Amino acid sequence: MSSGALLMMTVTEVVITAVTCYFFYKIVTIKPNPDSYFDNDEEER
Amino acid sequence: MSKTESAGWGSRVGLILAMAGNAVGLGNFLRFPVQAIQNGGGAFIIPYLVCFLLMGIPLLFVEWSVGRFGGKFGNHSTPFILDSMDKRKIWKYIGVFGIFTNLAVAAYYCYLESWTLSYVWHSVAGTFGGKSQGEVAGFFGEYVSLSSWEPIIFWILCLLLNTWILSKGLSGGVEKAAKIGMPLLLLFGAFLAYKAVTIQAGHHGAIHDGLKGLDFLWSPKFDTIWEPKVWLAAAGQIFFTLSIGMGSIQCYASYVKKNEDVALNAMSAGWMNAFVEVVLGSAILIPISVGYLGIDGLKDLISDGGGLGLGFKTLPYLFEQWGGVLGVVAGVAWFGLLFFAGVTSSLAMGTPVMGFLQDEFNWKEKNAAWAFGLAVFLLGLPTVLFFNEGVFDEYDYWAGTVSLVLFAFVEIILFSWIFGMNKGWAEINRGADIKVPTIFKFIIKYVTPLFLGWVFFSSIPGIMDTIHHKSSNEKIDFFNNPIAIKIKIDEQQKVLETKKDFNADYLRLNYSDDLIVKNKKLNVSTYLLIKKQRSLLKMVDNNTLRSKEIQKEQKTILYKNVSRLFLLVLWLVIAALVYKASINRKKLNKSI
Questions:
Q1: What CA dihedral angle connects B197, B201, B207 and B208, to 10 degrees?
Q2: How far apart are CA B248 and CA B99, in angstroms?
Q3: Do B493 and B443 share a domain, yes or no?
Q4: How far are the Cα atoms of B17, B173, B176, B249 from residue B366, in angstroms, in the given order?
Q5: What average pLDDT score do residues B452-457 get?
Q6: N or C: more exposed end of chain A, with fewer CB within 10 A?
Q7: Which residues span the domain enclosing B483?
Q8: Is residue B505 within a helix (H) or strand (E), and if so which, with residue range?
Q9: Mean per-residue pLDDT for B294-306?
Q10: Which whole number is the average pLDDT over B511-534?
């Protein structure tokens, strides 16, 4: 592979993989907000 | 009005996987890599990521928070979700697009999905074993020409599977399917990406290393980066890959509880889709194709049928080169991956339709699911029976392209300018598990609407061309005026001589050796003849064949016009149902 292609691919894939893992890690580790257990239904506007 | 109080997501991970599954579709693997190589290679990722940040992520924030906001009032489909944001009646009819698009796209998408199911079966059964590349491509042609009942059987099976999963409800059906489908998709994708990039020249008939394909795809051509068409392609790719403008994100989000996060959820699902598309999607189709066919061979096949053609006509043949069990496993992994990508998306298309029937007409979940299945069957029948007449493409264009952009454009205007950015910003941040950078308030109010407006208005010339059947009319003109091609070919259909100085008509070769014929005399722009269609050149000397070709195009125009009428009637029927629902609401004194 040319160095330009390798650099482009590596930087892009590392950044996207790292950001994806970061957000997914937060999803599985953040405890749910106790207030969030109210139903999301039937509120008068 | 709502009978869906008990419906909801079982877990946050399940919701994220379902949302990511909604976004991840066949386009992640078949469309993205082709777009990249046609628009600057590795440099394409720059406009792609800029569009993701300025258009994709803002629209995800908007659609998630709009959905959750509507859900507070017991609304789970866009007509009444949008209606809850502003008092004007027009919004519920704009929201019709959020049901129309899902139904119309599901109508052709489930057929596409059924091909993957059928090809999994044929990979296991060894149908492609011992066949030449041309025979494998021919198999696909016969398949979509309905030379047997098999495509219809697989299509019905696929519809029944979707309906059955939907009838099990959100957490019991859709979420479970996502929890099974998404991990398997990632597993199959990782396996194929590993096999693709480790292809070695000289092994199993490969002519290049798999890395040559990666090099071809990722080599940046920075000179293309300022071309508007590259930015339009990137914006289009971001748009369609994230399933924004469909109404399905709003529907899924309407089942999120009112103080639960949407900001982190939106980011997680959006980036997961980007991971599948960029990391896995770029590492399968192109490296395998270049490894066995070379760069020129790949270019030819892309001209012939794009990513879809490569995926169904070529890859089954290339997997056979790996031989025995590995070839079968690769075939199952590839079409299995496409199937899971497809089914998690088609399930998302069913949910808004079901939500509408349940909310407004008090239908039970199972009945609503079966009604969706029946509607998709009836609407999809023309795309199956008249695939070769262009009905499938016509549905895709109007429902799967134009409708999405139009709806998203109007939706973001509603959110940021009518509902109000301050209220909108509060919605995005309510219960947020991450701090959304304040810059997004500016982006959502100004940049994204301008960006979307640019995408939409730039598409208008193309829309006008499609309305007037430009492509078909050019073909007809071309065959009516064979004078446009003045060339000599030999028995092997090689071009021996071209006369560029022939009157006002000329022929030239472009970089991929396609033949572009321009008929200046008729002021017709271009008509493309790729290598494998050079027999068309002979056809112009044969009056019978020419008139057949003209009749074929005229027939295509007729079928396309009927399809448009069909889609228009569908939109009007949904609008009538929305009108009936609003009358019911008034009667029940529950109008919001």
A1: 40
A2: 9
A3: no
A4: 23, 11, 17, 21
A5: 88
A6: C
A7: 471-559
A8: strand B505-509
A9: 80
A10: 43
The answer on B535 and B423 residing in a single domain is: no
Across B94-109, b (16+ Cβ under 10 Å) vs e yields: bbbbbbbbbbbbbbbb
Which helix (H) or strand (E) segment holds residue B526: the answer is strand B524-529
Number of domains in chain B: 2
Residue B352 within a domain: yes
Residues B439 and B478 in one domain: no
Do both B210 and B351 map to the same domain?
Answer: yes
DSSP string, B222-253: GGGTT-HHHHHHHHHHHHHHTTTTSSHHHHHH
Of B16, B215, B279, which is closest to A16 when you measure between CB atoms? B279
Range of the domain at A11: 3-28
pLDDT of residue B455: 86
> Length of chain A, please?
45
Q: How far apart are CA A30 and CA B432, in angstroms?
A: 11
Token pair for residue B157? 């099976």
Residue B465, sorted as left (phi over 0), alpha (psi -120 to 50) or beta, turns out to be alpha
Nearest to B246 by CA among B145, B122, B147, B105: B105
Contact between B570 and B101 under an 8 Å Cβ cutoff? The reply is no
Side-chain half-sphere CA neighbours of B506 within 13 A: 5
From the list B13, B84, B215, the residue facing A27 with the nearest CB is B13
Q: The pTM is what? A: 0.87
DSSP for B411-467, written as a single string: HHHIIIIITTHHHHHHHHHTT-SS---THHHHIIIIIHHHHHHHHHHHHHHHHHHHH
Q: For B316-366, give the DSSP string.
A: HHHHHHT-HHHHHHHHHHHHHHHHHHHHHHHHHHHHHHHHHHHHHH---HH
A24 lies in a domain?
Answer: yes
**CB-CB contact of B80 with B92 (8 Å):** yes
Using a CB–CB cut-off of 8 Å, the residues of A that contact B are 1-2, 4-6, 8-9, 12-13, 16-17, 19-20, 23-24, 26-28, 30, 32-33, 35-45
* Closest-CA distance of chain A to residue B461, Å: 34
Contact B2, B72 (CB under 8 A): no
Q: Please report the ipTM that was assigned to this predicted complex.
A: 0.84
On chain A, the residues whose CB falls within 8 A of the CB of B71 are 40-41
B479 pLDDT higher than 90 = no
Residue A13, domain member (yes or no)? yes
Query: Tokens for B145?
Result: 């020409």
